[in-house]
Structure formats: structure tokens, C-alpha cells
Amino acid sequence: MSVKLTKGDITRQRLLGAAEEIFGRKGYYNATVVEITMRAEVAQGTFYVYFQSKLDIYCDLVRQLTHEVRREIQKRVTGLENRLDIEREGFRAFFDYVHENRNLYRIIREAEFVENELFIDHYRTIAKGYIAGLQKAMAKKQIRALDPETVAYCLMGMGEFMGMRWVLWENKTPPAKGFEAMMDFIYYGIAPAKGD
Amino acid sequence: MSVKLTKGDITRQRLLGAAEEIFGRKGYYNATVVEITMRAEVAQGTFYVYFQSKLDIYCDLVRQLTHEVRREIQKRVTGLENRLDIEREGFRAFFDYVHENRNLYRIIREAEFVENELFIDHYRTIAKGYIAGLQKAMAKKQIRALDPETVAYCLMGMGEFMGMRWVLWENKTPPAKGFEAMMDFIYYGIAPAKGD
Amino acid sequence: MSVKLTKGDITRQRLLGAAEEIFGRKGYYNATVVEITMRAEVAQGTFYVYFQSKLDIYCDLVRQLTHEVRREIQKRVTGLENRLDIEREGFRAFFDYVHENRNLYRIIREAEFVENELFIDHYRTIAKGYIAGLQKAMAKKQIRALDPETVAYCLMGMGEFMGMRWVLWENKTPPAKGFEAMMDFIYYGIAPAKGD
Amino acid sequence: MSVKLTKGDITRQRLLGAAEEIFGRKGYYNATVVEITMRAEVAQGTFYVYFQSKLDIYCDLVRQLTHEVRREIQKRVTGLENRLDIEREGFRAFFDYVHENRNLYRIIREAEFVENELFIDHYRTIAKGYIAGLQKAMAKKQIRALDPETVAYCLMGMGEFMGMRWVLWENKTPPAKGFEAMMDFIYYGIAPAKGD
DNA sequence: CATGAATGAGGCTTCATTCAT
DNA sequence: GATGAATGAAGCCTCATTCAT
Predict the structure, then answer these.
(1) Alpha-carbon distance A46 to A8, whole Å?
(2) Mutation to test the B interface, candidates A134, A147, A170, A187, most B Cβ within 10 Å
């Protein structure tokens, strides 16, 4: 039951794709509507057939991208039972995805300075799910019981820092070693082996 | 033996102060030079007597602010011997300072999208000092031996996340509880007491 | 088979026309883009749809004008066989044209102080053609053999001086008398009649 | 009976000297008062102690420079009796002087687009003297009788053209050959020797 | 739907000039 | 006389947005 894409939908997608590339590369404020339309190979006026303003397409994009990130992580952890497996796979999914779509990550981060609400929503949503998962795992005694919010700060922050440094600064996927060892350690008290 | 401030130095300071307020509140791209000069109560042209461009004053400001943050933390941990004391006091200093100067923190964060180099420099410098401190403490067996870089990602990330949520979103100083418990836990394996 | 002018081409022409008038009357540096757009009866922004900068339109204009001057002279001397006829008609064409388009002449002269390359190009091109013509005529013994470059300096300089004084200072076409007599004299040794 | 230069006169001279360098190198409109004062090593305000405006110093300078050129030529031809000697030496003096002071020449030429009156005055004065000299020489039958004004256009124009090309474009003194041969030719009908 | 020419508000920056010391 | 900080008018240019076709 595939959805029929009208010509208009396609143009809209072209614009969103172009916007992702331009916003990601130059940042919201240094991107111009003209540039986006040029990349999408449509006329300037066409932009305003599909979006009310530059901010409008940006918000659309951020909503879509944050949704994708979360869905992507969700997809990868679906079916996994053990908390540690979920976390490991979740972080890996996150890093893989943003590495594949580096522009996306920059756009999401910049939302803080463009439309802060979107940014807050995204992180709150992520945190909520993350904390819920932790609580479930603690209830089942899969992992040690700790204050879930504190753990969330700690591990989500670690994820961001690694994403920032490895993905954005060095254009690489962060090594799994670090965060996996840290989780073993936090949840089970297993200190990393010497030489790790 | 106070340093004599010339008339010019004062004007320069006024401009920097005004810039901090405006950049912090509206963001780099939504701030205007006119607004800064109005707040500083000088004429538009005066701005260009002291700074070459809007970007110039921004970079000056970021350099000055990042320096201040680091110095402030340094000042507070000077004299402390025990690693945990250092960390606790360091984080508290950080939170206190950015809470007192919320604009400062937003300006530093936005540097990622204005002049990325400055942003990277700042975090690298912080991380370097942090890691060195960890290594020293581990060598002295003050804390458990772990991969310092991973610990840095974890705890600095936690600091950022708490700074973001508590300071920027809620305009409060983050509760000491969370990060202090986490450190006890990471460094000594002391799980937080129930009810924490 | 007239070429279809798009709406855009017309606006562009309006701007160039307005620019010619303003640059010619006030000089490059005292002309403003606003003034040009007002005279062209378009909005300020429209200017930058067609030209990248004030200097850009100026260079376009100089290139176009110098080309026109040369073409105009060329047109008038085409078909003439005798060197003296060519020269006479050439100078007359030059004077007539710049008198009809005094602004044009001022613009070309000012190029020396705006974008010197254009100015040099123009004079080199003129001189090259002029010298080539002299050489051909000398080879055919139509005129006395003299160093063509020296003759070129002499007569082109005379043309400029007369253009400057009669056209620019007094807004008249220079009298043919002077330069025709001088050519007779130089090429054939015919001294002007008494009373000339 | 040397004139005592006060401190003020010296400052004034420094400013004029600096202005000559800057105006000559960058042109009137691209020169700034600040730059002139910096080069003169005085404060910005000092400029307005000696000159009423940027245009004021420019006019002063042009008047002084045109005067110098004429005096320099005058000096070199004083005492010469024969017209041809006078002309040869006069042109050589002109070329030598502007070559030594290229900036000066550019400043004078640019006057056409800054304060046209000064420019006109200069050329009229030169032409008047030149024509008077020609008439005297013709009366004494030192040179062939021709319309002096036409000769003036011809030879002054030649001088300008050579000055422009050799001095300004190529930074050399024009070769004497050309204009001396042309004068022999015009005044005595002596065609240049083959190979000249 | 699509176009692309046109708009104009508003930003950054320059610089001749003034003025209190 | 000399200073140099301060001024503010005015210029160039950008770009999100509109609109007639």
C-alpha cells in the first residue's frame, strides 16, 4: 500500500534535501534561500509554495531529523532484551547514523540557537525514553540500581561529547571501546581490563 | 598599584560588556552592532575604533570568556589535594560561574556555529587539563585507575548536560547531588544510597 | 529578425543607461548606487540582481563604451581607401561621437583612476589599430614614411587634447580645421595656408 | 636671507608630503585623512589645524605641484635662445621631473575628476606660455609659421601621451628621439632619417 | 504549480570631521 | 599648537519575501 507521491511532494522533498545539505554545511544563518532553491533546482518563488519562511523549513527539517535519529536508534534496539545490549546498540546506532549524516547532527545542535524549543523537545524526548529504559532494567535487576536521571546525564553527555569530537571534529565513528567499557563499569562495577 | 585605565580602555570595556549582554541574549546572528553601541551608550562609529568587525569583537569576547571560565575553576581548586575534592569543587565552580554569567555560557556554546576554532580550542584545553589531573590522581592511587579519556568524556559530558538543562533551560545551579554521587561511584565504586 | 529582449534585459539596460548618466555627470566616486537605481526607476536591490557591485557596473560600462567608440570610428572609416580620408573621417567620427555622448568620454577618461587596466586596454587597442593603419599607408606610399609610433603619439595626443578642451570644457565639436591641416602638413609637407 | 620655518610650518610640510605620497599612490578618493596623518606622524586632529578639509589639502597640493612643474620647466629653459632648444629642453625637463615625481603627475591628472578648475587652470597656463613662445619664435622666423594653437594641441598632446605611457605605465623616462624628431620635422620639414 | 524578476528593509562598515583636554 | 577619542551621516550590499505571469 505505497503512498503515491505527487509532483509537489517530490519538489518538497528536493527542497528539504537541499536545505539539509546547505544548513548542515553553512549553518542556518549563513545559508540562503536562494542557495537552497538552486541546489534543489527550482525557482526562488517555488520555495514559498511549500514553505512559509526560511525558519519554517528549518523547523520542519529539525523535526524530521530528530524524529529520524530517534527512529533509527529505536529500530536498532527493537527486539533486544538485555539492557546493556540495548544501550550498546543504541549508542552505536546513534554514532553510525550521525556519522552517515553529519550535516543532520550539526543542524540539530544548531537548533539551540535558532529555535530553542525544538532543541529542548528533542533532548527531553530522548532523555525520557532513556530514563524509562533504565528504570525498567533496574526494576528487572538487569543493571545496578542508580539514580536514573544522573546516569542519563552522564551517559547522554558522554555520547554528545564523543559525537562532537569524533563525528564532527574528526569525521569518524567513535570507537565502541570507551562507552561500552564505561557502561560495564557503571552498571556492573566491572573495571576495564588493563590496557583498554 | 592599580593600573591606570585610559578613556579608551573604558570605552572598550563598555563595548565588550554590552556585547556580552546582547550576544548572550539574542545570539550572534540576531545581535546587531547598532544594538551593542546603543547599550554601551556610544555612537556607531565608536565601535569600529575598537574592533574591526562584529566577528572581531565576538572572537575577543569568546577568548576572554573561555579564559575566565577556566581561570575561575582553576582558582577554586587551587590548593586542594584530593582528586575528588578537586573535581567536586571544579564542577561547582563551573556551575556557579556560568549560572552567575548565563550569557557567557550561551556565547561560548554558540561559538561552535560562528567561529568553530575558538570552540574547539576551549574544549581541548579544558579536556587536556582534566585528563592530566585524572592521570596524576590515578598515579597517586587517589582514585581508581580507568581510561582517563573515557572518564573525561563521561564527566565533562555530564557537566555540559547538567549545565544545559539546569543553567540554560531552568536558570538554576544544578544540584550537587548528582555529579558528586556519580564521582564517588566511578572512582570508588560507592553506589549512591537509596533515596538519593 | 529582432532579438527578443526579456524583461530582465530591459532592466539591465535601464541600469546601464542610468549609470552612464550619473557616472558621467558626477564621476565614479561621487555617484551612488541609490542614485543610479532612482534614475533607472527600480529598487535598490534590483541593482544587485544585475551587477555584483558598483565597480562591476562601472567596468561593464567602460568596456561597452570603449567598444562603442572604436566601433563607431570603424564604421565611419570603413570603405575609405586613402589614408588621409581615413584619418580625417576617423577623428571627426571620434569628436562627433564623444560630443554626442560627452558623459561617455568622461567615464572612459576617469577609468584611469578607477580601474586602470580598462583604461590601458582601451588606449593600447586604439593605438595598435592606428599604427597598423599608418604602416599600411606608408607601405603603399599614400603618406610620407615616418616612425609610426611617434606619429601616433602626436596625433592621438592632439585628438585627446582637442577632445578635452572642445568637447569637455566647451561642449563643442572641435573645428576640423586644426587637425586636418596638421595631417596635410605632417604627411605631405603642405604647410597651412596663411590665415588658416 | 633664509626664511625661518616655524614648528607649525614644518608640520604643514610633513602633511603635504604625506598627502602627495598617499594621493599619488591611491588616488584622491581612496586616500584617507587618517592615512595621511599616520604617514606624517601627527594626530588626526592636527590635520584640521592646518587644513580645512581633505579637499582643501588636495587643492593646495595641486596648486603647489602644478606650479612646481611649470617652474621646473621654466628653470631649465631659461637662457636658451633657440626655439628648438627651448622645446627640447622643456619636454625633457617635463619628463624628467614627472619621472622623478610620478605621484605628482598622477595627482595632477586626477584633478580633472576632483576639482576640475585646477586642472583647467594648469593646462591653460601651460598652453598660454607655450603658444606665446611659439609666436615669438615664429615672429623671429626661428621656426616655420604655423597656427600656434594647432601646434600646441599636437605637441602638448604628444607630451601627455608619452608621459602617460612611458612614465605612468612603464615607469621610465620617454626616449628623446620621438619628440625631437617630430619637432625638427614640424618646424623645419626635416623628415627623420631612415632607421630612426 | 511554477517561475524569476523585483522589492526594500536593514545590516555592516567607512571616514571626514569635531571637540574636550 | 597638538592630541586622539568620539561622532554620525551616508554608502554599499544582502537576502527573505512578494507578485504578476
Answers:
(1) 10
(2) A147
